[in-house]
Every structure is written in C-alpha cells, then in structure tokens.
Amino acid sequence: MDISVQEDLVFVADIVFDRPLRKPFSYLIPTELFNSISKGKRVRVPLGKGNKPTIGFCVDTRHIPSDPKLKSIFAIMDEEPLVSTHLLEFTKWIADYYLCGWGQVLQAVVPAWVRSGATTPKVFIVDFSDKFHISSATKKFSPQQTRIFEQLNLLHPITIKELCIKSACTPSVVNRLVETDWLVKTAIDEGQAFFGALQTIPLDPSIHLNDEQIAVSKTITDQIHSGKFCTFLLHGVTGSGKTEVYLEAIEATIKNGRQAIVMVPEISLTPQTVYRFKKRFSKIVVLHSNLREAERGKNWKLVAEGKVDVVIGPRSTVFAPCPNLGLIVIDEEHENSFKQDNTPRYHGRDIAVKRARMLDIPIVLGSATPSFESWHNACKNSYKMLTLSKRVRNLPMPPVYLVDMKTSPPASPSLRGMISEDLQKGMKRALSQNGQVMLFLNRRGFHTFIQCPTCKTVENCKHCDLAMTFHKRKNILLCHHCGDEKKPDTRCETCKTETIQFKGMGTEKLEEEITKLFPDKVIRRMDSDSTTKPGSHEYILNAFREGLINILVGTQMIAKGLDFPNVLLVGVINPDTGIHIPDFRASERTFQLLSQVAGRTGRGDKPGMVYFQTYYPEHPAIVSAAKHDFISFVDEEIKHRQSLFFPPFCRLARIVIRSKSAESAATFSDELGEQLRLATTEIKGSGKLKILGPTEAPVFKLKEYHRFHVQLHAEKHTVLHQLIQVALGKMKPISGLEVIVDIDPYNLL
C-alpha cells in the first residue's frame, strides 16, 4: 500500500457501526496497522464521549488534513475482509434507500458465527455396519427400522438429523440401531458431512419440458449467455412447472462458470424444496435463519470461497457472498415475508433486482399470483413478462366450490359456522378414493377470543390492543404478538359475570372437531405451536408424503410450495379473515393466499377439488380465486389503487412513532405532521404528494408501546427521502420515544 503523502495529511479509516447513524466516522490508522487495514474488515475503536470500545466495519481508507480531535483505531479484528467491495457498495445503496445506518445493514449481512470466528462444529453421521451386511437378511425389522434402512440405502452416509427427517422417525430409533450394532455412528466436521451427503445423491438429468417451458427457458438462458441485466417476471399457474424452468436457468449459469442464488419464502423453505435442487446440482448450500448459527456461518464461508454453485434461502440470501454471481431467482416473489420487519427494513425482492442491475446479470421473479408492483412493472415493460398458462401434463386446474356459510347446513349442529355438510361430504369422497385432505385455517389456537356475554368485553392482552387466544392443551390465554400468557378467568373482570363465552375457531379446535368427524383417520396439525421441536416440521410433511397421515390441518405453513400428488381435496375453513384488515393490500393478499392453497390439489393422476367456506361468496378476491382468474382480478383491483394514489402508482413511506407514554407519542407525531407539511414547500418538483395522518395506528398499543403513524405518498422515492430527512432534521429527540421509518412498507397495522 502506497502511503507516501504530504506531511500535513493523515491516513484514516471510515468506520460505520450497528447504529442508526447516517455517516461514517473517521479514525486515525496507527502506523503498525497500515499494512493490515482494508475495506470490509472489522475494527475496534473508541466511540462516544466515554470512548467505549466498539466494533465497526471499515468502509474506506483515505488521506485527510490532520485533525487533533481524531481518535485512533485500537485493533483490527479480521485477517481477511468479511465483506467484498461489491457487497460494500450494495449495502451502502440499501442504507441510503431505506434511510438506515450503513453499519446496521452490514451487521445484518454477516452471520454472527463468521463475526465470532468460532471453530467448525461437529455433527454425527451414520452408515451400515459390518453386522448389517452379514446378518440383516435373516433379521426381521420394524416398519420404522425398515424405512431407515431404505433411506440409508439411497443416501449414505447421512447425518442422523437428515435420516430422521427422510424416514419420518425419531433419533432414538436410529440410536437404538447404533447401540445394537446395525449402524455405525461417526462425528465429523459439519461442512464435510454436507459435501459427503451431496456426493451420494444421484443427480437427475434434465427432465422433459413442455413447449411453454422450452420457450420460456430459452428466453432466460439466452439472456444468461448474453451476460446482461434483465428482470423477468415468470407468471405461471400453480403446478405449471416454474421450478423446472428455474433448474434449466441455473444449469446454464453453472455451465458458464458462475453461481446462482435462489430465494424462497421462509415458510416454503422445506426439505422437499431443497431436495429438488439437490437432485439436480451437486454443490448447493442452504442459508436459513433457523439453522444453528454455526451451520449458517459455515455455509456462508463455503459460498464466499467459491465452493458452491447454488445458494438457497429466504430474504437474507440476497446477501450471499458469491464471488462470481450469474443469476438470481426469486420464487413466490409476491410473498410478504421478503419484506423485513425490523432494521434494515429492506424488501428482498427489490434489493435483489438492484443487486442484479449492479452486477449486470439476469434475475427471474416467479409467481402464480404476482405482486401488483411486479405486474405493473411488466405491463410498462420495465420487466419482461414470461407466461406458463397451463399445468404440466396438461392437468386441469381443480374446481373450486364456494360454500355460502350463511345458508349452507353444517356437518352437525355443534359445527355451525365451522364445518359445512358440503365440505364433510367432499372429504368423505376424497378419503374413499384413498386420497388425502388438507384443511387450511390461518388462525392458531383453540378459540380466537373470549368475551363476556353481558357487557361484551373481550379479553385483550394488557400489553397490546389485541384479543388473547385460548390454547386448550396448555389451558392458557396467549397473545400472539408479545407472547404474554395467563390462565383464563372464570368470570368477567369488568362486570363480574360468572359466564364467559369462548368464541372463534383456531387450528387446535379444528383438529379436535375433524377427529370427531373422522375417528378412524390419522389427523395431524401443522402450525407454529405443533412444530416447536427441531425437525418436527419436516417430520410431519414427510409422514404426510408417505401416506401415514390422512388429513393435515394447518395454517399457511401448508399453503406454500408443497407438492403432494395424492391430495384430492383442499378445504379453506374461513377465507374471510384477511379481507377486512385495514390495509390497501388486503384483497390482493386474500386472493394470493387462496390461489396458493387451491393449487395444492389436483397435481397427480386423480383430479382434485377445493372448497372455500365463506360468508362473502361475492367478494371479488374470493370469486376470482375460485375461477383461478388472476388477470380479471388484477385488472379490476388495480383501478382502485390508481384512483386512490396507492402503489404501484406511487411510492409509499410510513413513519411510526412509538412510546410507552401515549401523550409523548401524540405530541411528537402532531409536531412531525406539521414539519412534514412545511417541508413540502421546500421541495421543488415534488409532483403529486399526499400525507395521511398523523393518526393512531390501527393497532394502537403493541408490546406496551402506544403507536401513531403517518403515511406519505409521492411519485418518486427521492421526494419521500427529502421530505422525511428535512422534517426529522427539525425534530428534537425525546427520551423513550422511537421513530421508525419504513420505505415501501408492507405492514400498515
């Protein structure tokens, strides 16, 4: 490094921290650190008046005039940069666009395990023993043990965790086989286990594509070979084979010597999803927040070292440190889970498009129900539209039966408003054909609220303005937002009435009622309450895939990205819950969710059927979903958006003011509203601009904080940035009050 400079200049590093600071701080680089400092490394420096030792990222080095106020770097934390020059530029853009600290973005990018420099974790793998090869032919094994051997024969050696998932058994069964010498167990490095397992998966050759898939794949692969940026919107009905198109595109990318990122919604990141990619490509890793930190960090390092061809994961996978990235794929691009709820509040899809543009590579956004933003971009030719209009093998879309719950008789008097006679008959018909049934209800718990019949008081969480949910198995009332719990009262706290009514139905009650209707069937529930144990999510799905479960009851966990050919009926118990949420995207989300749920059936040789039980059978979102008609729905709904100046016809920002003092939050929000309106006079060429609020947020009290919000609508995001920065720049911070800025918000509650 050339450090020959004028005597009045000093060598400094610009450092950013995991704090909401908009600019880097400059620190003197001691002479002994000249040759080891570089961008992307972490340093320990004194920060603030107390000179507290604090770790930050070095984002630049330069020479500046000498300043006696400059503090010096204490130490450099890393031998090699943790973040590449490209990722530094990318994260800087994110910080600028979402109006947060650059250091906050970098902190979110690098896994904690990588930052800690921890040692490589160990895992256990199992394989057949000599005893098995010699004596197994004369031994009779249990059904569970037989499944273990069958899976191990296909894929060995294999980690105990993965073997349990694939064979739908518990670790105790595997360990018993080890204890009795039928299997052998060995501890090895986690990364070694990963690549060892991959090498034993038999790779599938390219499958036969239909004419539509061939045409779409050629368009994408031609773009890959050109090495130029393009955003493709792949609109394909459920079951149309979008994944096969992704696989073809990824194969072309790998043949070009480059890497691919595949982003999927967190809820869809199932072993089934990952296995489809593992069957096609040999070097693949998963980056997932539910992985142990060490496992995630190890995979992150493998990617950074260029040892991986394909990276799969949720929204944070957009930051994968691929040294030679050639393609980004986003499946189910419409999913809200791509938007992060805390700082940095980025949208994975939107920043992925930006990263692809910066690297000049193609990106594919796929969905059966595209977001209105992506659809609008395609309609105005900012994105290139690709279409898969029919299911593979020309399978028909399943018929959807609308059951009007206002008039349809229940399956029994006790099930009024819950299970209709029509749905019960449909389930009997599907089960009689040895088919399986999926029942969807997007509400956890047993009863969704309890109410006093006299004064009508609902038992709300004391920390939130939201009803508490009754969970029967634990006999508790639980707040699904802050986690507070309590035993249900036997009388009303307000009027002291002794009789309390339990109302509404969640998945726990649905499971119980379905068990009564079909006592001879195996019924399981899959929601966040029933899948708390590690591997339980995969265990249930594997058992369902193997036909060990007849009826699967669940929340949106069962609605996304699952492919079970033997599912002959899908029942949606109450699709109305999302329609009346005070959010301009409520109808769009309802349509998308219903379409995704309906797409889980009719994927095999036998035709499927769908039942929507609704009190609003004429609602446009429900009617269009029943007809599998995205085009008509979006054409009509988007007109309302345009008339009201909502996305995709404007850029939207939301400012949330929250404090434990309602008075402080109200006073600050009123003043901020005034400053925002005054700031509009300072911004030239702002175009159309609308300010809504300040007003109480729809959920006014959440986790003990009182919340007000302001919505800002503008034609350009630059106007929003200027407006927010000017207004907040004139506000004085208040102790105990937090201001949250959310650019392109997806949660308006």
How would you sum up this structure, described in words?
The chain has 749 residues and is α/β, with parallel strands linked by helices. It folds into six domains: 108 residues, GIY-YIG endonuclease (3-Layer(aba) Sandwich), CATH 3.40.1440.60; 79 residues; 179 residues, 3-Layer(aba) Sandwich (Rossmann fold); 184 residues, P-loop containing nucleotide triphosphate hydrolases (Rossmann fold), CATH 3.40.50.300; 58 residues, no CATH class; 93 residues, Alpha-Beta Plaits (2-Layer Sandwich). The protein has 22 helices and 30 strands. The strands form seven sheets. A seven-stranded parallel beta sheet has the order 11-12-10-13-14-9-15, sandwiched between helices. A six-stranded parallel beta sheet has the order 16-26-25-17-24-23, sandwiched between helices. A five-stranded antiparallel beta sheet has the order 2-1-4-3-5. Strand 11, helix 12 and strand 12 form a beta-alpha-beta unit. Helix 18 packs parallel to helix 19. It starts with 8 loop residues before the first strand and ends in a 6-residue tail after the last strand.
